[in-house]
Design goal:
Length: 648
């Protein structure tokens, strides 16, 4: 005799865990349940989770059978929630009160060990609640509290840590004061004696020289490489949450789902959430047509402002079940082993390693001259500068995708700033101020970038505007920021955040005249050391700036084996003129449209170095769906491994 009067044979009782054994009496195939039990044992999780996450049994079917086994009401849709429902507490607990007159006092969406406790005769409040699915409970809570959830996602950082938030004070007065200070500095500068002007200019050149030193010195650091003994056994791997914010991304949904289905990680320990805006019916429809098991979940973010990626991520952060969490973009194709590599690296790292930054690889470099420059730029950032900053434990502006976090630490710093349009840069500096550092994860994620100037300029304008927003946020109390980061950390932050924008703004006005004025045939030696110092410093700054621009890109391309891109490295100074244009547009947008998020369209690549960005046709669509439901990913995984092997 089993619990609750259900019957199954003694052999079945011994073979099947409690949380799935009761399903035999409800007509579920014993072979399917035995497979789930074996998968659960291998991956170190409970059998009910393995059963649903692998797509062996649908979520609604399982919880409907659980309700029958418990002789409890089953509520699947339109839950009549009571006044005591809270976000995110009710979803974290999986438990919420029902309205007076409902079929039960409470509704429960148990997971894992909570299911076993219910079946063993224990329940949260001594009375049998109604049973529902976790999905139905989430939908009901979001429908009940859309305004509160939208406010939480937009303003939680401002409420908890106003000194870390962009929107602590209204933007217009801040910008006005900043403008007045700039004009006062210009007027004061123009009225100074010539000798003092020369001294100040020379001092500024020394400052610029110190800033470019980080990029030049980065070429001396050998990047980490994957270790042969890096794997953790499946049973020791933690639950991993994957967040992907989507906005008007219907075109790349099939490729994205296929890429995430090929992740080499126990399915029972994956928690994959697609985050879409309430008005984005096209992306919702594209996700709905692909059958996906319970480890894939679509979260509709309530309407609200700002309509940004970080706001969507904040709405889902309280729902994350993983010990670790990674953020991907819609166009990403991560190395299938990336989560395993990250979990192993986290296990070897100290608790102060809050984040691991994966290496972003531009795969459609042959689309245009612009994408070739973009590929060189990313090779410099993620294969040279990023590993160096990680080795030196200096503040790192994050890349925005393939960023892996300890979930508890991410919650401790209150997630992302929803009002900052480069939330990744801001979060990297905020982690450093809180005493954490970013590690380098030597694992690739394939990226697609804009091939046309208009799209590139819109994206880069947003980035420059966000760097300015980050500079304003952490420059609000400069001495406190200095104490948080220390001398070297503060200098690094100045170089990589405001320094990036200011150097881009000044680039055409300093670099081109300097090339003319410092042309060797025009240089004349003045008498004495101090007279020659300004010119000598200018020469050193010019050469150092060019080295900082060209050396990391050259080394990054060589490490990738991208010999075909090396001829384009000498043209990067011309590419940086476009950077200057984007910086000026970003400065204008900071005043005229600070919250505007310039959307980048994806799925337009014409070339793919690895082949992973190729178009997804109907047949490949069906194959991806079949792989999701059956768990048969071996062939697809082998193809992806060949893609990445060809890139190394």
């Amino acid at each position: 005799m089993s619990i609750l009067g259900l019957r199954w044979s003694p052999s079945e009782a011994r073979a099947l865990p409690l949380e799935i054994g009761f399903l035999v009496a409800h007509g579920f195939a014993a072979a399917t349940l035995e497979r789930a039990a074996a998968l659960a044992e291998a991956s170190g999780t409970d059998a009910a989770t393995a059963l649903m996450m692998m797509g062996l049994v649908g979520e609604a079917s399982y919880y409907r059978a659980l309700a029958r086994a418990l002789d409890a009401p089953f509520l699947e849709a339109a839950l009549p929630l009571g006044a005591g429902t809270r976000y995110p507490e009710s979803l974290v607990a999986g438990f919420a009160p029902l309205a007076p007159g409902a079929c039960a006092a409470f509704v429960f969406a148990p997971r894992g060990g909570a299911i076993r406790e219910l079946l063993a005769g224990r329940n949260p409040n001594g009375r049998m609640p109604a049973i529902t699915t976790p999905t139905a409970l989430r939908l009901a809570v979001f429908a009940e509290h859309p305004t509160g959830i939208a406010a939480h996602a937009a303003d939680e950082l401002m409420v908890r840590r106003p000194d870390w938030a962009l929107k602590t004070r209204p933007g217009s007065p801040v910008f006005a004061c900043a403008g007045l200070r700039v004009w006062a500095a210009v007027i004061g500068y123009a009225s100074l004696p010539a000798s003092l002007l020369t001294a100040l200019w020379t001092t500024l050149q020394f400052g610029i020289l110190a800033l470019v030193t980080f990029r030049v010195a980065a070429v001396s650091v050998d990047p980490a490489s994957p270790r042969a003994d890096r794997d953790l056994p499946d049973g020791d791997l933690p639950i991993y949450t994957v967040l992907v914010a989507l906005h008007r991304e219907a075109a790349v949904v099939p490729r994205l789902v296929g890429a995430l289905s090929r992740l080499d990680y126990p399915a029972a320990k994956l928690d994959i959430k697609f985050l879409i805006e309430a008005h984005d019916v096209e992306t919702a429809a594209a996700l709905a047509v692909i059958p996906m098991p319970a480890r894939f979940e679509t979260v509709v973010v309530p309407e609200g402002l700002p309509r940004t990626k970080p706001r969507a991520l904040n709405a889902a952060l309280p729902l994350a079940r993983g010990e670790h969490l990674v953020v991907y973009d819609a166009e990403d194709v991560p190395d299938p082993r990336q989560l395993r590599d990250a979990a192993a690296m986290f296990s070897r790292s100290s608790s102060t390693t809050a984040c691991l930054q994966g290496r972003l690889v531009i795969d459609n470099a042959r689309d245009s001259l612009l994408t070739r420059f973009f590929a060189l730029e990313y090779a410099a950032l993620f294969d040279v500068l990023g590993p160096a900053l990680a080795a030196w434990r200096l503040p790192t502006p994050l890349g925005g995708t393939s960023t892996h976090f300890r979930t508890a630490t991410l919650r401790a710093v209150h997630g992302w700033d929803a009002w900052n349009v480069t939330e990744d840069c801001d979060l990297g500096i905020r982690l450093a101020r809180a005493g954490y550092h970013v590690g380098d994860l030597p694992s690739d994620t394939i990226e697609e970038v804009p091939a046309r100037l208009g799209a590139w300029l819109g994206q880069r304008t947003r980035w420059m505007k966000g760097f300015l927003q980050t500079s304003l946020t952490h420059g609000r109390h400069p001495m406190k920021t200095f104490r948080d980061l220390g001398m070297l950390g503060s200098l690094c932050t100045l170089a990589l955040v405001p320094g990036t924008v200011l150097s881009a703004l000044a680039y055409p006005f300093l670099m081109l005249p300097a090339l003319v004025a410092l042309w060797p045939s025009r240089l004349e030696s003045a008498g004495g050391f101090w007279s020659n110092l300004p010119t000598g410093t200018a020469v050193v700054v010019l050469l150092s700036g060019l080295l900082a621009m060209l050396l990391p890109a050259t080394l990054g391309a060589m490490r990738r084996g991208w010999w075909d891109l090396l001829p384009f490295v000498p043209l990067l100074p011309a590419y940086f003129l476009l950077m200057s244009l984007a910086a000026w547009l970003g400065l204008i947008e900071l005043v005229t449209a600070p919250d505007r998020w310039n959307k980048t369209e994806h799925g337009l690549s014409r070339t793919s170095r690895s082949g992973a960005l190729g178009p997804v046709g109907p047949q490949r669509n069906l194959a991806s769906s079949a792989a999701l439901c059956s768990g048969g990913r071996v062939r697809l995984r082998a193809v992806t491994k060949r893609f990445f092997a060809s890139m190394m």
